[in-house]
Design goal:
GO terms for molecular function: ATP binding; dCMP kinase activity. The chain contains nine helices and eight strands. By secondary structure, the chain is α/β, with parallel strands linked by helices. A five-stranded parallel β-sheet has the order 2-6-1-7-8. Strands 3-4-5 form a three-stranded antiparallel β-sheet. Bound molecules: adenosine-5'-diphosphate and cytidine-5'-diphosphate.
Length: 215
């Protein structure tokens, strides 16, 4: 079984996906971490984000050298490793936030991310922007999370203390830059995550899924 959870920045995708996956005792995949990791790799090697070739050759070289950039969908949360180095903590920064949408516009990088995701065998929950449309259109259940920019900014500020107005403006800008890949699947269930607590939203998603087989 594949469940997809898509939505814009800070709509609650990772938290809801994690809670749903835990309830179903299956992993969840955070596609955004792969885009963040590719962006971090380009920034750390001072590569341009307007041309995919240098970035893809870096990622392919790391794989050939035996130190691939990989997504580890661990129960305690997704991690990105480059060989034996866990780089996850380097990926949720203002600098990566400011550049990731540019990287995500590169079709060759999208194909690379999709290839990483397609290597993983179901069952899983996959969260991002285009999981239910481009990456796993065959998913058995699809959800699209929404919340107002103000609510989403207030959540981000809880995580990374910053000026609320500038966080909201940055989220709106990223929403615009991500619009092309963020359209909901026609068969996705839309959920306003501003309408309840995280636990209530997780329960709402689970209520749309077939009950797990009894032991
Ligand atoms: N329904 C909710 N009510 C309150 N806080 C929420 C809700 N959903 C998510 N959050 C919180 O909002 C923040 C952003 O959620 P996250 O799952 O990281 O969003 P995304 O993956 O879409 O960027 C996290 O701190 C999370 O705990
Ligand atoms: N399936 C996806 C997931 C992320 N992305 C890109 O990656 C960026 C970071 O995704 P994310 O899910 O980690 O971001 P948040 O919504 O958690 O802030 C997004 O702003 C998009 O530019 C994408 O294009 N397609």
């Amino acid at each position: 079984m594949i469940v997809t959870i898509d939505g814009v920045a800070a709509s609650g995708k990772s938290s809801v996906a994690s809670g749903v996956a835990r309830a179903l005792n299956i992993p969840y995949l955070s596609s955004g971490l792969l885009y963040r990791a590719a962006t971090w790799a380009a920034l750390s090697q001072r590569l341009p984000l307007t041309d995919a070739a240098p970035l893809l050759s870096l990622l392919n070289r790391w794989e050939a050298d035996g130190t691939p950039l990989t997504l580890r969908p661990l129960p305690q949360g997704n991690e990105i490793w480059v060989g034996e180095q866990n780089v996850t903590d380097l990926l949720h920064t203002t600098e990566v936030d400011a550049h990731v949408s540019a990287a995500a516009q590169l079709p060759e990088l999208r194909a690379w991310v999709d290839a990483q995701l397609h290597r993983i065998s179901p069952p899983f929950v996959a969260e991002g922007r285009d999981m239910g449309t481009a990456v796993f259109p065959q998913a058995q259940a699809k959800f699209y999370l929404e919340a107002s920019a103000r609510v989403r900014a207030q959540r981000r500020v809880q995580e990374r203390p910053q000026d609320l107005e500038s966080v909201e403006a940055a989220l709106r800008l990223r929403d615009e830059r991500d619009a092309r890949q963020s359209a909901p699947a026609p068969d996705a269930v839309h959920i306003d995550t501003g309408s309840g607590t995280l636990e209530q939203i997780i329960a709402q998603v689970l209520s749309h899924l077939p009950a797990p087989p009894t032991e």
